[in-house]
Amino acid sequence: MTEENKQAANAQGHGPKMAFQKIYIKDVSFEAPNAPRVFQEQGQPNIKLNLNQKVDKLDDNTYEVTLTATVTCEVNEKTAYLAEVAQAGIFSMENFEEQALHQTLGIYCPNVLFPYVRQEISNLITAGGFQPLLLQPVNFEQMYQQQMQQAQQQAASETKQ
After folding, report:
1. In the structure, how many helices (H) and strands (E) does the chain have?
2. Residue 161: inside a domain, yes or no?
3. How many CB atoms lie within 10 A of CB 48?
4. What pLDDT score does 159 carry?
5. Residue 70 falls within a domain, yes or no?
6. Residue 25 sits in a domain of what CATH number?
7. Could you tell me how far CA 145 lies from the centroid of its own chain?
8. Which residue among 70, 75, 100, 159 is least enclosed by CB atoms within 10 Å?
9. CA 5 to CA 148: how far, in whole Å?
10. Does the pTM exceed 0.70?
């Protein structure tokens, strides 16, 4: 759809539309490589969180957004557990301008998926015999802006070469 067609569609009351088609777990993994000895370890757990997101275009108006969270816990430099959840959603997006579409896929969609990721991570860790872990809220807007800045810097450095 050309920019003029989008503006005409918006003027006719056909502004951007978004719908959730499906939210589902794409992949899940839990490991406790040092169990049962790790349950006897004394010390402060060191917990690391790694978040990644991926967008796949399924057709002209449909996108799959996958938010993957990997939580690693170490006690006395031994891995207590590793929990990973890839939560995905299929989103229909119509009449979005390119910039707004990119921002919605990079900010709004991960925000929709995050509560599901948080719950599944908590369930895995508790079922693994460890203390419950509740992931803190994530500012996906800030993450998105950082990614855009990094992309601009990388593009600028490649242009200079």
Report:
1. 4, 4
2. no
3. 10
4. 75
5. yes
6. 3.10.420.10
7. 15
8. 159
9. 27
10. yes
